[in-house]
Design goal:
The chain is an alpha/beta fold. The protein has 24 helices and 25 strands. The protein is flat and about 90 Å long.
Length: 731
């Protein structure tokens, strides 16, 4: 998203910085390295912090490890070299009359050219020693007299990101002069924002760069952050409006598959699942393309909901597609759906990078349950699960009472067609070589593993098919309103009954012997366990970590009475599937694996998970892996072994130990990692933000969404009126 699109009022300042006095070729090149090429970009160059130079500290008052600003005169300076001249330290000594401060720069001898003995210097940094008082690599600025001194001293001064050769003082002065010359040219595109408490654009720019008080900067940031979110929301709302003008296949179904499927499940759907299914059925029959995001914590039953949505589509004579991020998960879906749907006469095909498999439904149960010509057989018995997800009472119609047998489907014009098919696969479904007719619905599991472009490519294989994307990784609300703002959101916030909670413990590596004793005891009880490591093989760059291949061999030697399996991403597909099948059947009791198992693996008898070097996994990833246990009736245990030394790592692990609430975990993850790391900017399609912060700006995002909806509504109403006027004049 361009800067002018986010802040349209600055379009009049879309002029090259070389139009400014004092900006020649060299300075323009330096500014370009900071992505400043126009006057508008210069005025939106956000300070990275501010110094309150109205209250400069005395050197004698400095405390250890407290960031402070002091001012003093250079009384001594010099460079010392050692290690045969390969290393150096440059030092200046400042005196402010209360004490002296030693400022040092390691291996930066060129710093000497910036200072002269007798200079008055402002210094910002943290004191790490008291005898003598020392600061390493502080920020500095030489105090100069002249008419511009009021810009730099005795005020709240902005400190900007810089590049080599560009002085802080020069950039601050340039922005001061530019504001004075050009700010009056700016007009507000949204004058009504004043009623919401936002400052005008001109006032916001002045507060951004030269606030009267430190708190003024936050008001300015909020104004420009709101504009960024508003630009995003306008795009989103316009896309939603245009999509709703398109026609989609009506896939309400007739319950001949759904009824039998729910009857054979062996358990009742939760209220949350039923609520979501009602919304999906409404979408599928509305005649507009469904675009829905289904969130649900691990084990909440999203797959059953997806199965019902697919069956509604198949009942309507259209094909369905389910895409998963890994072959293991795709294969598991294929096995589950084959077991569920084959007796209904549903045809399934699996397509992955390893090849294709198919399963043709027998239809035995379906043929026994349906008597051709009897419309009543397509409705639910009173009080059944299917009855709960009906959105309205439906009258039998001729088409449903004369439907062909399961081996065929009927097109809208009455032609017999090939039986509708459920396609399950990985990225192989996106390939150009894969084609299908009459695509009714696309379901994407673990959507965060796919990019926006991949999602759109799969959708283009059909004529405006419905879309349901699912995730077990809860999405912070700010990201949900932007990254998935063009989707309706449903949440399964209820776990099926009969499941025991997962108990999570964080332990240091010296407790591993006791941990293994505990695991042995659980294995003797007949339970199964996952043991997870961050690497496939030892060695390589980065932090030290255990490797799954080496640890697998050790575990085999120490636990000879238990069958152990190995699983990692470098194994061939058939090897991975064989290991997983043996683990599902209970033949393998300990599965030693990498994070490959984080999505979709469902083995109810696995009740113990040990994750070593847990500090090297992300918070959401650990939560996903933990979701592989706790899927049965037995108490489950997740043990995170880590010698975490950083504050972030300790906070991640403590969060997992204290809560299983995926949404709380998602908010902490966002605060720790930031939007870019959490979503991947290129993959997610989110533009970088200069002022907005998804970890703290939920009120601004919500306000921008409401504002954008009103604007798009007015635009569309005006467009409709213009069209009507034009048609009337032609008539």
């Amino acid at each position: 998203m361009s800067l002018v699109k986010s802040h349209p009022q600055l379009g009049v300042l879309d002029l090259l910085v070389t139009n400014l006095r004092g900006v020649g070729t060299e300075r323009a090149e330096q500014l370009a390295r900071l992505e400043i090429r126009t006057i508008a970009e210069l005025l939106l160059h956000k300070p990275r912090r501010y110094e309150d130079r109205r209250r400069v500290s005395r050197i004698a008052e400095l405390d250890l490890m407290q960031a402070r600003t002091v001012a003093g005169k250079v009384v001594a300076m010099g460079t010392k070299r050692y290690s045969q001249g390969r290393k150096s330290v440059f030092e200046i000594i400042l005196d402010d009359g209360s004490a002296r401060l030693h400022c040092r720069w390691w291996n930066l001898p060129f710093m000497q050219k910036y200072f002269t003995q007798g200079d008055e210097v402002l210094v910002f940094g943290k004191l790490h020693s008291l005898r003598p008082r020392e600061v390493d690599h502080p920020e500095t600025e030489i105090i100069e007299g002249g008419e511009e001194s009021s810009i730099h001293l005795n005020r709240v001064a902005p400190i900007y990101p810089l590049t080599e050769g560009l002085p802080q003082r020069w950039l601050r002065g340039l922005i001061w002069r530019t504001l004075g010359e050009f700010s009056t040219r700016i007009t507000d595109p949204w004058p009504e924002l004043a009623k919401e408490g936002f400052p005008s654009t001109e006032a916001a720019l002045r507060s951004l760069h030269f606030p009267e008080e430190p708190a003024d900067e936050e008001k300015a940031r909020a104004r420009f952050a709101f504009e960024e979110f508003l630009a995003l929301q306008l795009d989103i709302q316009e896309r939603r409006w245009r999509l709703r003008q398109r026609e989609a296949h009506s896939c309400r179904g007739d319950n001949r598959f759904v009824k039998q499927f729910l009857a054979k499940l062996g358990f009742r759907l939760t209220q949350a699942q039923t609520r979501v299914l009602k919304a999906i059925r409404h979408d599928l029959e509305a005649g507009e393309p469904m675009r829905r995001l289904l969130q649900g914590d691990v084990g909440s039953g999203k797959t059953v909901v997806a199965a019902c949505a697919l069956l509604m589509t198949l009942e309507s004579g259209y094909n369905g597609v389910l895409m998963a991020p890994t072959e293991i998960l795709a294969s598991q879906h294929f096995e589950n759906f084959s077991r569920w749907l084959e007796p209904l006469g549903v045809q399934l095909r699996l397509r992955t990078g390893s090849g294709e498999r198919s399963c043709r439904g027998t239809g035995e149960e379906l043929e026994a349950a349906i008597i051709p010509g009897s419309a009543s057989n397509f409705s639910s018995a009173p009080g059944s699960q299917t009855d709960e997800i009906q959105t309205a009472e439906k009258k039998p119609d001729v088409a449903s009472s004369q439907r062909l047998p399961p081996s065929a489907a009927t097109s809208p014009d009455g032609r017999a067609e090939t039986q509708p098919t459920l396609f399950i696969g990985t990225h192989a479904l996106i390939e150009d070589s894969f084609e299908m007719d009459r695509l009714g619905i696309v379901i994407i599991d673990e959507q965060h593993k796919f990019g926006v472009a991949q999602r759109e490519k799969l959708l283009r294989k059909g004529k405006c098919p419905h879309l349901l994307v699912m995730t077990a990784t809860p999405i912070p609300r700010t990201l949900g309103l932007t990254l998935y703002g063009d989707l309706d959101v449903s949440v399964i916030d209820q776990l099926p009954g009969g499941r025991c909670p997962i108990r999570t413990f964080v332990r240091q590596s010296d407790k591993l012997p006791k941990v293994w004793e505990f695991i042995r005891a659980k294995l003797k009880e007949g339970r199964q366990a996952y043991v997870i490591y961050p690497r496939v093989e030892e060695g390589g760059a980065g932090r030290p970590a255990k490797a799954v291949i080496a640890e697998f061999q050790k575990i085999q030697k120490h636990l000879t009475s238990f069958e152990t399996g190995l699983l990692h991403g470098r194994m061939k597909s058939e090897e991975k599937e064989k290991v997983m099948e043996r683990f599902r059947s209970g033949t393998v009791q300990i599965l030693v694996a990498t994070s490959l198992i984080e999505v979709g693996v469902d083995v109810p008898n696995a009740t113990v998970m040990l994750v070593e070097n847990a500090e090297q996994f992300g918070l959401a990833q650990l939560h996903q892996m933990r979701g592989r246990i706790g899927r049965g009736a037995h108490e489950s245990f997740c043990i995170l072994v880590a010698d975490a030394r950083t504050d972030d790592a300790q906070r991640r692990l403590k969060t997992l130990e204290e809560t299983a609430d995926g949404f709380k975990i998602a908010e902490v993850d966002l605060a720790l990692r930031g939007t870019g790391d959490l979503t991947g900017q290129q993959q997610s399609g989110l533009p970088p933000l200069r002022f907005g912060d998804f970890s703290r700006d939920l009120p601004l995002v919500e306000k921008a969404r409401v504002f954008a909806t009103e604007i798009i509504g007015r635009r569309m109403k005006l467009s409709a009126q213009t069209t009507q006027t034009a048609e009337a004049s032609v008539a």
